[in-house]
TrEMBL record, chain A:
<keyword id="KW-0732">Signal</keyword>
<dbReference type="Pfam" id="PF23860">
    <property type="entry name" value="Ribophorin_II_3rd"/>
</dbReference>
<dbReference type="InterPro" id="IPR055375">
    <property type="entry name" value="Ribophorin_II_2nd"/>
</dbReference>
<protein>
    <recommendedName>
        <fullName>Dolichyl-diphosphooligosaccharide--protein glycosyltransferase subunit 2</fullName>
    </recommendedName>
</protein>
<comment type="subunit">
    <text>Component of the oligosaccharyltransferase (OST) complex.</text>
</comment>
<dbReference type="GO" id="GO:0006487">
    <property type="term" value="P:protein N-linked glycosylation"/>
</dbReference>
<dbReference type="Pfam" id="PF23861">
    <property type="entry name" value="Ribophorin_II_2nd"/>
</dbReference>
<comment type="pathway">
    <text>Protein modification; protein glycosylation.</text>
</comment>
<dbReference type="GO" id="GO:0008250">
    <property type="term" value="C:oligosaccharyltransferase complex"/>
</dbReference>
UniProtKB/TrEMBL annotation, chain B:
<keyword id="KW-0812">Transmembrane</keyword>
<feature type="transmembrane region" description="Helical">
    <location>
        <begin position="57"/>
        <end position="77"/>
    </location>
</feature>
<feature type="transmembrane region" description="Helical">
    <location>
        <begin position="33"/>
        <end position="51"/>
    </location>
</feature>
<dbReference type="Pfam" id="PF02109">
    <property type="entry name" value="DAD"/>
</dbReference>
<protein>
    <recommendedName>
        <fullName>Dolichyl-diphosphooligosaccharide--protein glycosyltransferase subunit DAD1</fullName>
    </recommendedName>
</protein>
<comment type="subunit">
    <text>Component of the oligosaccharyltransferase (OST) complex.</text>
</comment>
<comment type="function">
    <text>Subunit of the oligosaccharyl transferase (OST) complex that catalyzes the initial transfer of a defined glycan (Glc(3)Man(9)GlcNAc(2) in eukaryotes) from the lipid carrier dolichol-pyrophosphate to an asparagine residue within an Asn-X-Ser/Thr consensus motif in nascent polypeptide chains, the first step in protein N-glycosylation. N-glycosylation occurs cotranslationally and the complex associates with the Sec61 complex at the channel-forming translocon complex that mediates protein translocation across the endoplasmic reticulum (ER). All subunits are required for a maximal enzyme activity.</text>
</comment>
<dbReference type="GO" id="GO:0006487">
    <property type="term" value="P:protein N-linked glycosylation"/>
</dbReference>
<comment type="similarity">
    <text>Belongs to the DAD/OST2 family.</text>
</comment>
Length: 612, 116
């Protein structure tokens, strides 16, 4: 019965590509603007160094240009905290953390003082947070000073005393007299232990590391799951004081894990789908409205990204999701969507990882570049007995989409005169801001060119490359950027005298298209492709066009459509007309007369007194 | 010659007036003083209006009319209180003063309404 039931079977393939392909498209402009809104300094500086660090880190990860005054004010409070003798290890820790991004100069003497202070704090530490701040501070200062001799004297002893806080379920306690354990503390502990390992002068006992790895896998047993496959850590709400919420908790664990993975030699052996589930959790919450949550999300995603490698994961299971019998997955071929006939890769086998049940292809072939591909996999069952139970289908085709950052080079805008001589040439930085201002007459040509290369160094042709010219009167003209040879080039404006119109009919059309409108045109360039992660839509600058007078029968520019929603918009403010206020006398004069009117009364009173 | 005689006459007239007025009872003198006070206050307001303009015209009118009204009522009081006025000998000075106060009340109620 079982044999016949399992007679047909479809293999589903679960494929994800990290590396050239990034999961990061969900982090977008909206995150950037949200970051700028959430992290707005109060009078030029943040309330605490912790907040400063969170802001700086978020800006760094999102690639937001730091404002110089922000860094300057951060540096001021960092050096204040570092120099002050009353700073606690926590203050020092956040000051050093902020400094790891702000990169202010710490002088030798201060850093020596901090090192002795933190070393003393480590030996006097009794709770997890004490260890976290002091060890973390030492790790940070090790990276920030030229002195290489920062290390823990008794690293293994410290390691053991931190390890003593761990619980059997993989969670940790904050201190030995606090029975409650949490995943949040586990993240902190992992980060601390990673710091201890990197500070150790001699190798830490491997068995200690191994028990810790065990703890980590136990911690992952308590992971919680949403319906969409997103995974997260959460602590039971026992004591409201230390409850952190799933986002902070998960973020803490991720930070700890990545820190620990970075310092240990062996692999952590975490299943890839768990990591993917965590990433899904962070990406699933969009942009949080709270600065702390926002930082946690962005920082964790950055941690996960730093840990990525370029590899291809293939998971094979049955239709109902149970695991497949022993088999080998072969990548038979990869075809780009353009050419179906020639395979880009040689046939190769994928390595099977028993623990996770995933077939891995490390290092994608060099021929695979950004673009969409069809990968063809072939599945070979190891035991011939199984071939009677399972049907694999001869070959499985999987469409794969590889995205990447495209390099933009040699962008320039050139203004030629009618003889072909260059009159003005401006380099453009398409990744940054541009504000080109040109003025062109008729008889001139405008040429904009740039070059795109893929991460593998090949020329890249985007799906869209459009140039938009917008006149002051809101009339827009869109041009498709052509592709002559390797460089994208557009000959935009070529105005010629009217008696030569017959030979240059195209340009007549162009002039017609512009409706002979002289004036300022804003230039906007769009370069976009689904596989290009840094697609851009950018205002380059403006060109001042001086066009000839329109002939009699020239077409009029079309009336701009009226926005239908404008009738529901706010009406103009009603202005009330009041009578102009009458002229008033100077105040002094009025007061003088007030005094004068009192005088007769006084006279009357005095007269009455003397009379009687 | 004529000029000095006329000034002498004026002086004599003034003297006789003064001596005659000195004989006036004190309560009448007080009323006279009161009338003078009201008239002068009205004059000052008129001067102010001439300088500044009549912008809050209601206020000006009520101010001046209050003074003039007070002065007129005070004159009436004086007539009634004067013992030599045989016409009003039936009216007690207390009664006259009560009339004066009542009329002032009515006058100033109207004035206050008019003040704007």
């Amino acid at each position: 019965m079982a044999r016949s039931l399992a007679g047909f079977l479809v293999f589903s393939l679960f494929v994800s590509i990290c590396g050239a392909a990034s999961l990061f498209q969900p982090i977008s402009e909206s995150h950037r603007s949200a970051a700028l809104e959430l992290f707005t300094p109060d009078h030029g500086s943040f309330k605490s160094l912790e907040e400063t660090y969170e802001a700086l880190r978020t800006f760094e990860v999102l690639g937001i240009e730091k404002k110089p005054d922000l860094t300057a004010s951060a540096c001021r409070s960092i050096s204040e905290t570092l120099g002050s003798p009353s700073s606690t290890p926590k203050d020092l820790f956040y000051a050093l953390k902020a400094n790891s991004i702000a990169k202010c100069r710490i002088n030798e003497k201060t850093s020596e003082g901090i090192i002795t202070k933190l070393n003393a704090a480590v030996s006097g530490a009794s709770s997890l947070l004490d260890f976290y701040y002091s060890v973390g501070g030492l790790v940070l200062i090790k990276d920030q000073t030229s002195k290489a001799d920062v290390h823990l004297a008794d690293a293994e002893g410290v390691f053991r005393s931190v390890k003593a806080f761990s619980q059997s379920d993989g969670r940790w306690r904050y201190s030995s007299n606090n029975p409650e354990s949490s995943a949040f503390a586990a993240g902190i502990a992992l980060e601390t232990l990673a710091g201890i390992v990197s500070l150790a002068s001699s190798e830490i006992d491997q068995s200690l590391i191994n028990t810790l790895k065990n703890d980590i896998s136990k911690l992952f047993d308590s992971i919680e799951k949403y319906d969409d496959g997103a995974l997260y850590f959460d602590d039971k709400l026992v004591d409201g004081r230390e409850y952190q919420g799933p986002l902070s908790t998960t973020s803490s664990v991720v930070r700890g894990l990545t820190a620990f993975a970075a310092v240990t030699a062996g692999s952590l052996n975490l299943p890839g789908d768990k990591i993917l589930g965590l990433a899904k959790f962070f990406l699933g919450i969009e942009a949080p409205g709270d600065a702390k949550d926002f930082f946690n999300q962005i920082d964790s995603l950055a941690c996960l990204e730093n840990n990525r490698q370029e590899f291809l994961l293939v998971r094979v299971n049955t239709v109902l999701g149970s695991s497949a019998p022993p088999l080998t997955v072969k990548l038979v071929g990869a075809y780009s969507s353009g050419s179906k006939d020639k395979s880009l890769v040689e046939s190769q086998e994928l390595k099977f990882e028993a623990g996770t049940g995933v077939h891995i292809l490390n290092n994608l072939p060099k021929t695979i570049d950004v673009g969409s591909y069809t990968f063809v996999f072939e599945i070979v069952l190891h035991e011939s007995e199984h071939e009677k139970i399972y049907v694999t289908g001869s070959q499985t085709k999987v469409p794969i989409f590889v995205t990447g950052l495209i390099k933009i080079e040699n962008a320039e805008i050139v203004l030629d005169n009618d003889l072909g001589n260059v009159e003005a040439q401006k380099k453009l930085d398409l990744a940054g801001q541009n504000a080109v201002s040109l003025s062109a007459k008729h008889l001139q040509k405008l040429r904009l060119s740039f070059q795109l290369t893929t991460p593998r160094g090949r020329a890249f042709k985007p799906h869209q490359a459009l140039l938009k010219l917008r006149h002051e009167s809101k009339i827009e003209h869109i041009f498709v950027v052509g592709n002559p040879g390797k460089q994208f080039e557009i000959v935009l404006v070529k105005y010629l005298l009217f008696h030569r119109l017959s030979t240059f009919l195209d340009f007549l059309q162009l002039v017609d298209k512009f409706f002979y409108l002289s004036g300022r045109y804003d230039i906007e360039l769009t370069v976009g492709d689904a596989v290009m992660e840094n697609s851009l839509l950018q205002a380059i600058g403006h060109v001042e066009l001086d066009l000839p007078e329109p002939p009699e029968k020239a077409p009029r520019p079309p009336a701009q459509p009226v926005d239908p929603y404008s009738r529901y918009g706010p009406k103009a403010e009603i202005e009330h007309i009041f009578r102009a206020p009458d002229k008033r006398p100077p105040k002094e004069l009025s007061l003088a007369f007030l005094g004068l009117t009192i005088l007769p009364l006084l006279g009357f009173l005095v007269g009455e007194k003397s009379g009687t | 010659m004529g000029k000095s005689s006329s000034s002498k006459d004026a002086q004599a007239l003034f003297h006789s007036l003064r001596s005659a007025y000195a004989a006036t009872p004190v309560n009448l003198k007080i009323i006279d003083l009161y009338v003078g006070f009201a008239v002068f206050t009205a004059l000052i307001q008129v001067v102010y209006m001439a300088i500044v303009g009549s912008f809050p015209f209601n206020s000006f009118l009520s101010g001046v009319l209050s003074c003039v009204g007070t002065a007129v009522l005070a004159v009436c009081l004086r007539i009634q209180v004067n013992k030599e006025n045989k016409e009003f000998k039936d009216i007690a000075p207390e009664r006259a003063f009560a009339d004066f106060v009542l009329c002032n009340l009515v006058l100033h109620l109207v004035i206050m309404n008019f003040l704007g």
